[in-house]
Specification:
776 residues; alpha+beta; Dipeptide-binding Protein, domain 1; D-Maltodextrin-Binding Protein, domain 2; seven-stranded mixed beta sheet; six-stranded mixed beta sheet; signal
């Protein structure tokens, strides 16, 4: 061994024997005077790529790790002469040289990786072999024998997974092997593919996943053909028999006028065998005789009220079953645009008289049966104290109600009102026409109900042959499930989408995605006598303790840009675009409170001191800090948001309990929760401000400043005073926090292109449901 190599090995001995803070076993040893390197397994891949040089006994023995040697084609010379220069791993700025005669052998890095891979494959350690094989494929794709090594890995891993019952993974392995190396044992691979396909098909059919089974079978037939895979021919025949059986059952159900069963069976027949003779024609025939639409929803409705501001499902389904005296059709430059369901309205120039003109000759039953005196009584009841229909803003606005003939009702107002129609959003039921209270007045009536499925059937004879006979709402476990079913054709409509889902669906040629023109405001509403939540300082701490921007952008929007979706500083919508008239109640000069957990902790301490001082003055006991029960509706968007809020409040050392509300409910029963997550449709702040913040509203606020702000709005005589009053109320709500504002969401809906008549810029999904039809 020459002098330079001797110096190197002396240095190695010195380093290996030096005492230090790090134990010898924790160090990576790069050279030694004897022996061979220790086996390190997967940790080898954490080292810098290197070759190993082993020295002869005559040269003193030992080994050294060197940076990859620059051999032509990475092949060790067969009969080398002279010297070899190399760089030792871990020794910088120094190049070493030795005679070739001193070298016993050189172990190349890639050969070492191959050896490790083969040994792990041989003992069935495929998880261990995979990283080594991945490095080889990445760095040495042209190595001789790599193709066989990779094929051996896939084949043996597939066998192991099949024995463990992992049929899906086995199929994936075998298909990758066939695509990669079709020359590798082709008969064995095709035989294994046929066998594993048979097992998978049996499992899918047993689980009732017929459409998924058919899709897999069609793909396998396209990729391999019936001739190569015996299982494909077998299952094609079985599926044809099954499709024919279901088709016959569908025809029998159709003849028996069991249209629901006929529809389901005819679609199952086509799903099982898309090319079955007469299959699609039968589906179209049944849809023509009994048009039916399936709507995917996150919440089915248990209460039907088209005027509810806090219950999306109730508002949606309520519009299907009930009409409202004044229905909001959209937003205009000055508040909402309303339609008087019984005719037209007239307002005097000074807005001190508001007249309702009935046009019953243009209406269909039961709306055509309305009597002017009945309607006048209903309007009067809304202004009469101690009646269930009493509504204080209308009582404060109207002075007298009279009739001028059989079709005209005159409402004299105490003072000019900018939008009296918004005060008369009253649901209409059958009792208005001499029928039963609660009887439907919309195009549909509720039929079968359950937590996960509700049917709405046409309430009268169809107005035209293509009119839908039935709307079926099907509750989805998650928004992503609904998206998948819509794409598969199992659903016709989705009523509420996450922004990420809306983007995904908009790329499909079979789906239309539309945005609702009015946003919803999400907030936390206190709903109990929890002593700490009653304190404004504590509520302010809770707001500072929520990273609202992070939850909205990360959890709910999944990092996507969604115009109009934003954190808000108050209970009113901010509009979707700059200078949007929808945001007339929102003061943009008030910025949302930032996430300040340290400030939140400070405010909580301050609040505790204030409560203790007050208790000491009254010689009472300080109220106990009980866990905060946070309630949320049973949908995954609300659940995700509340789980994130809970985790952030727990960082403030608060005890928080989540309470999931029953399906269809959005507000908890008294005593079951302390604060509730609400998605509110504050579409007309003039009226909705009281419905949210008033003593009888959701927040049940008795705050004097809030009450004063509400009265100022209701007494306003023009739009300027209305807007000024709402901006003041926004500032009051921001300071007093009767509700904890979170964010504004712009919601979307989607439907298949076969469904026509849905309309554009609809406020509610079923706004035009009586005009929907399937395009056959």
């Amino acid at each position: 061994m020459n002098i330079q190599m001797q110096k190197m090995l002396s240095l190695a001995t010195l380093l290996l024997c030096t005492a230090g803070a790090t134990p010898l076993s924790a160090q990576i040893v790069n050279y030694a005077e004897s022996g061979v390197p220790d086996r390190v397994g997967l940790e080898l891949l954490q080292e810098e790529p290197h070759d190993l040089i082993y020295m002869t006994e005559e040269a003193g023995g030992g080994w050294v790790k060197v940076r990859l040697l620059e051999f032509p084609g990475r092949k060790v010379p067969e009969d080398p002469k002279g010297t070899l220069q190399f760089d030792v791993i871990g020794i910088e700025l120094k190049r070493f040289v030795t005679d070739w005669k001193n070298i016993e052998k050189i172990d190349l890095w890639e050969i070492r990786l191959e050896r490790e891979t083969m040994e792990m494959i041989a003992r069935g350690d495929f998880k261990g072999a995979y990283p080594f094989l991945s490095v080889l494929i990445r760095d040495y794709p042209n190595r001789p024998g790599l193709r066989k090594l990779r094929s051996e890995f896939l084949w043996r891993d597939a066998i192991k997974r099949a024995k463990a019952g992992e049929f899906e993974a086995t199929l994936a392995m075998l298909e990758e092997l066939w695509r990669y190396a079709p020359e590798y044992q082709p008969q064995k691979v095709l035989g294994a593919l046929s066998g594993i396909t048979d097992k998978l098909m049996t499992k899918l059919v047993k689980d009732g996943q017929l459409e998924l089974a058919q899709q897999m079978l069609a793909r396998l037939e396209k990729d391999y053909g019936e001739g190569r895979l015996a299982s494909v021919a077998k299952w094609n025949q079985l599926f044809l028999q099954l499709a024919q059986k279901k088709q016959q059952e569908a025809i029998a159900a159709l003849e028996a006028k069991d249209y629901r069963a006929a529809r389901a069976l005819s679609r199952e027949s086509v799903a099982v065998r898309p090319d079955i003779e007469g299959g699609k024609e039968l589906v179209r025939k049944i849809d023509t005789i009994y048009p039916l639409v399936r709507v995917g929803v996150l919440q089915t409705a248990t209460v039907l009220d088209p005027t509810r501001i806090d219950n999306w499902a109730s508002r949606r389904a309520g519009r299907l079953v009930y009409r409202t005296l004044f229905e909001m059709k959209g937003a205009g430059p000055e508040g909402g645009e309303y339609e008087f369901v019984f005719g037209e309205t007239e307002t005097t120039p000074y807005r001190t008289q508001f007249d309702l003109v009935l046009e019953t000759e243009k209406l269909k039953p039961p709306l055509s049966e309305i009597k002017a005196f009945t309607l006048a009584d209903k309007i009067a009841e809304r202004a009469t104290r101690n009646t269930p229909e009493y509504f204080s803003p209308w009582a404060a606005a109207v002075e007298a109600i009279g009739m001028d003939g059989p079709k005209r009702i005159e409402c004299s107002l105490r003072r000019p009102h900018v939008l009296p129609s918004c005060l008369l959003q009253i649901p209409i039921d059958g009792s208005w026409f001499g029928g039963e209270k609660g009887a439907p007045t919309g195009a549909y009536k509720q039929s079968d109900t359950g937590d996960d499925l509700v049917r709405y059937v046409l309430a009268a004879e169809p107005e035209f042959p293509e009119q839908l006979r039935e709307v079926v709402e099907i509750r989805q476990a998650s928004a992503s499930d609904g998206v998948s079913l819509l794409l598969q054709g199992e659903l016709d409509v989705l009523d509420q989408l996450f922004p990420a889902d809306a983007i995904r669906l908009s790329k499909s040629r079979d789906i239309r995605v539309k945005t609702y023109p009015l946003p919803t405001v999400h907030m936390l509403v206190p709903c109990s006598d929890h002593a700490y939540l009653a304190e404004r300082t504590f509520r302010r701490a809770l707001v500072y303790g929520i990273n609202r921007a992070d939850i909205l952008n990360g959890e709910l929007l999944e990092g996507l840009e969604a115009p109009g979706c934003q954190v808000v500083s108050g209970p009113f919508p901010a509009g979707i675009e700059m200078d949007d008239p929808l945001g007339y109640a929102y003061d943009k000069s008030i910025s949302p409170r930032r996430y300040e957990p340290r400030l939140a902790k400070l405010l909580m301490t301050l609040n505790a001191n204030q409560m203790k001082a007050l208790a000491d003055r009254k010689k009472e006991k300080v109220p106990e800090m009980k866990p905060i029960r946070l309630a949320f509706p049973a949908d995954n968007l609300s659940r995700v948001a509340c789980e994130a809020i809970m985790s952030q409040w727990q960082l403030l050392d608060l005890k928080v309990e989540l309470v999931e509300l029953p399906v269809g409910r959005t507000f908890p029963e008294p005593g079951t929760a302390d604060i509730v997550y609400v998605s509110a449709a504050i579409w007309e702040p003039i009226i909705d401000a009281r419905r949210l913040l008033g003593p009888e509203g959701l927040a049940a606020s008795s705050d004097q400043l809030v009450g004063l702000g509400l009265r100022r709005i209701e007494e306003a005589r023009d739009w300027k005073k209305v807007r000024d009053g709402l901006l003041d109320l926004h500032a009051i709500a921001h300071h007093e926090l009767p509700v904890l504002p979170l964010w504004q969401m712009v919601d979307s809906y989607a439907y298949r292109r076969e469904l026509i008549g849905v309309g554009n810029d609809i406020v509610s999904l079923y706004q035009n449901a009586d005009k929907w039809q399937l395009n056959q």
